[in-house]
Amino acid sequence: MTHSHWFLPDTPDVLGLLRQQVAVTIEGLDAFAAWAAGEATAAEAVRDAEHRADTAKRELLGALRAAFITPLEPEDLFALSRGVDWILNWARDLVDESEVMACPPDPGIAEMASLMDEAVRKIDEAITHFGSDGDQAAEAAYAAIKTERRLELVYLRGMAALLEVEDMRERISRRELYRRCSRIGEMVIDVAERVIYAVVKQS
Asked: How many Å apart are CA 26 and CA 123, to the nearest integer?
């Protein structure tokens, strides 16, 4: 008589892998904020973090394919990973465009970069509470959204100030950089709202 033995596959720590990706993203945004504040050499640190974050994202997606059970729905984990990836990708793109246009960041961009960094740290805080405290996760996500609203105010103030810039080339270049900052802020909101949606589904 033969006996069949069933073994459940190992359950990879997909939330841990997501937090690793977010941690590298925060490193990149730290460097981005330093670059925006005038530390030109930090540009390379932004690019390095973006490459490492891509690796972290691939590891997470590989784990999702192998996972039998996940603490969040795979769709939510994928959306969160993709959104976080885009935040850092777009920050790197802003650095690249700034260099190509020979248009260095100004205090408004520096302030927005700092707010992006703060908001993603709130998203990281939210992710740490997944599965243990949905209220705390949602509260941290709402704090990220509130931080992004402050970014919008800086954006509007900066765009208004550009009307006073006489050099058309500088005005157009800086307007494009400001718009990129606003776009990153919108992605922060998308990620934070996805966190809230995932929490609602768990409750």
From this structure: 10
- Quick: pLDDT tens for 15-71: 999 999 999 999 999 999 999 999 999 999 999 999 999 999 999 999 888 776 777
Residue 97, token pair as written in the block:
């465009």
Residue 4, burial from CB neighbour count under 10 angstroms (0-12, 13-18, 19+): exposed
Q: How many CB atoms lie within 10 A of CB 66?
A: 11
Residues 6+ apart with CB under 8 A from 88: 24, 25, 28, 29, 46, 49, 50, 53
Whether pTM > 0.85 for this model: the answer is: yes
User: For residue 164, what pLDDT is reported?
Assistant: 93
> Residue 155: pLDDT band by 50, 70, 90 thresholds?
very high
Taking a C-beta distance cutoff of 8 angstroms, is the pair 48, 143 a contact? no
Residue 112 to residue 44: CA distance in whole angstroms: 20
Helix or strand or coil: residue 163? coil
The DSSP string of 10-26 is: P---HHHHHHHHHHHHH
Rounded CA separation 143/136 (Å): 10
